[in-house]
Amino acid sequence: MDRRNFFRKAFRDSSKAVVKHVAKKVEQQASRWIRPPFAVEELNFLLACTRCDACIEACEYQVIFRLPPRLGAKVAATPALDLLNHACHLCADWPCVAACETGALRLPESEADSPPAEPVAPPVLARASINTQSCLPYHGPECGACAGSCPVEGALDWQLTRPVINPLHCTGCALCRQACITDPPAINIQSAALVKVNDAREFV
Questions:
Q1: What is the four-CA torsion angle of 197, 65, 97, 187, rounded to 10 degrees?
Q2: pLDDT of 26-53, one tens digit each?
Q3: How much of the chain is helix, strand and coil, in % rounded to 5?
Q4: pTM for this predicted structure
Q5: Which of 92, 108, 123, 200 is deepest in the core (most CB within 10 A)?
Q6: Does the pLDDT value for residue 200 go beyond 80?
Q7: Which domains does the chain have, with CATH numbers?
Q8: Where are the beta strands (DSSP E) in the chain?
Q9: 8 Å CB contact between 186 and 180
Q10: In terms of pLDDT, which residue wins out, 120 or 147?
Q11: What is the pLDDT of residue 197?
Q12: Cβ neighbours of 110 (radius 10 Å)
């Protein structure tokens, strides 16, 4: 390898390392919010999103909102899901994704190129879990308020009268949280990115 090619390779390698470092940092920051369905990786999302509000306007359930300025200029006014106060209804035609013209929200390529015969499988939006300290059936009284609220087969199971969330199927749409009658709701919602960060820390 001659001198010129050596420096070219060194520049490419260092550039890749910088991009990887920045991507990791923004992914960690993204654990503080939840992006709309089919959002691309956070770094690419920030590069693609023009803050046009098209996905916000397309959501008839008003689940998508603009992140506030206090979170910093890089993410201010970009869209996120308010799953603590609303729920994503996993619309069959994904209007929020269809409204995005820049590719910040994008269906998988194989499904975007040709309309599938069946509805597109919903992505994992967040992580839902049951707070057994406040969920009524875990303390005697029957409830069942969340029964029938989950649109994803196998995500909300039952052990006798007690609801159980199966993380292998749950998308974190928060429809069960919205149906919960306790105050606050007995369904916890966390960013999937935050769960990944916490899981990674456990193995460090």
A1: 50
A2: 667 778 899 999 999 998 999 999 999 9
A3: 35, 15, 50
A4: 0.80
A5: 123
A6: no
A7: 31-121 (no CATH), 124-204 (3.30.70.20)
A8: 64-66, 79-81, 126-130, 156-159, 162-165, 187-191
A9: yes
A10: 147
A11: 45
A12: 8
